[in-house]
Write the structure tokens for this entry.
Amino acid sequence: MGPALCLVSAACFGAMAIFGKFAYDAGVSPAALLLVRFSLAAALLGVILLLRPGPRRAEPGEHRGVPTGRVLATAVALGAVGYAAQAGLFFSALHLMDASLLSLILYTYPVLVTMAAVLLGRDRLTPGRSAALLAASGGTLLVLLGAGGASFHPVGALLAFGAAVTYTVYILVADTVVHRLPPVVLSALVMTGAAGTLGAGALLTGGVDLGFQLPGWFWLACIAVVSTVLAMLTFFAGLRRTGPSTAAILSTFEPVVTTGLAALTLGESLSPVQLAGGALVLSSVAVLQVRTRTRKQDREAPAPARDAAGEPTAMAS
């Protein structure tokens, strides 16, 4: 069930750009999409916490004490500043460019996280990791060079990369509080913070137009329920069963899902050069995660038994 849940999560996140395109076609503005998405997601997560006490309990390895005000404030700020900004950049880029190309540019963020972690002293840059980063950079370049004039939008590409950078900062900050709060509680606080920021922005700018027709509400509900709440919950459920390395590897299929759905529903397509670049990006992220898992297994493997002379003993068959 663990790998299946992770794949469901990747599919849910990967469908978000497609739902967003359909919402735009139904007359939904980017501002309305973001406000309704986070408000509805926060409400749904709040209902889950009220009706089911289980998600409020700490997981193994989490701090059992009452979270401090600083931890709670950081969780809310992750949504109010980080996630709100990342989502704003993402959906603004989606308004200008193809969903498939946007997904491939956004998915440079795992490489950016690795580079930032090295610079911050949280990790070290091994030769294998250096090769993976080089492959990812080359893959992103191929994606951009092979875009063609019709699908490539410079401002859209800049917004998409800005979303990747913002999400990188979001992950690095979230890493400091993720073990202090149960996953659903953290998700609810993040969604509440994002909804608060977008709601305040709507009040300051004269409000958000919510007068679109029923199809627009349907696609917004899909984004909030499928690509936000369901995506988060299935990922955390899969993470508990598979561990972080396997969950991260399976999550690299998210842009593949977006590209496939875009080809099926929106008539978008990627050139062979773009496909090759996308494959490099995805494979580099997978290599980074696989190497991390291999090193962890090597550290946890028991040392072979040795005799008095220091030679390995034979294993019983």
About this structure: The chain is about 75% helix and 0% strand.
